[in-house]
Amino acid sequence: MKQFFAFVKKEFYHIFRDRRTMIILLAMPVVQIIIFGFALTNEVKNSKIAIWDQSKDAATASLINQLEASRYFEVEQSIHTAKEIESIFQKGEIKLAMILPQHFDEDLRHFNKAQVQLIADASDPNVANTLTNYASAIIMDYQNRITHEKKLPYTITTEMRMLYNPELKGAYNFVPGVMAMVLLLVCTMMTAITIVREKETGTMEVMLVSPANPLRIVIAKAVPYFLLSMVNITTILLLSVFVLDVPVNGSLVLLVGESLLFTLVSLSLGLLISTKAGSQQTALFISLVGLLLPTVMLSGFMFPIENMPLPLRTVSNIVPARWYYSIVKSVMIKGIGLNAVWKETLILSGMLIFFLGLAIKNFKIRLA
Description:
The chain is built from 14 helices and four strands. By secondary structure, it is mainly alpha-helical. The chain folds into two domains: 2-40 and 169-362, no CATH class; 47-147, abc type-2 transporter like domain (abc type-2 transporter like fold). The model is unreliable at 154-158 (pLDDT under 50).
């Protein structure tokens, strides 16, 4: 056991004296969580809108004020002719234009109805659809506010509730995905590279001929990365709660436990790659290209798995990040317990046993 701890201590020394390794291990998770939490978001905020107010009465002024008060729109300019609309769209100055016709207030008071026209730049259909939905919701809210208790014939009222994320913050989706991506890439990549580097420099052969058990040597090299991953988990959770305002609604103990399980899966995958890779470049390529794309594309992090064709949905089942992403969303965002994520936990446990068993089987105690 003393030999085992001596190898662990040696690996810690190697990590701490290599600045690049320290940056990858500790700085990259912080940078990624901040970038994905703030910069990369599927929310549409502070969009510039142009308004052609042909009525210029109290009702249109109130509606415009309500649009400006929301966090979704900024009234960029007022227009006065139909020709101006196409011109500012072509310049890319705005994404949405609203036309309020003449006699808007009078139509509301006398006929109980008025028209509003929304014109969106559909060169980006997702943004156009989102902006028109936001504007429609604000107009509906304005209508409900001015009608008060009046009962109009055949009025249909739709009530919407957004569970778990009422403000539709993008961070609620990106934080679980970043946790999966950081833990998988860092643990797998660093474990694979550090063992292959020992092979390239010839020190692995020296260690294998020592009295120490070869398997213990390899496990000892993975232990520091497991402990540093615990630091990363803590950092990500603290940033998520106190910087991005993403709460931990479920059990913190369960969330940390599942994160540690996923870390072990990533480390075992790194050990498996190290048994197959002949150089650091090969290990790096497999870790980045072979794992980054499936993690981003097939985990449900960026794109819904339900929308994918059957072959891709089938392939996504072998991506560890898919199951961990589902667990984090369920525990952290929805606040549910182990009884709801036992299947995903069982799958990750099976992957851990499979990858670790395969790595041990392929590990060669003699280097050619």
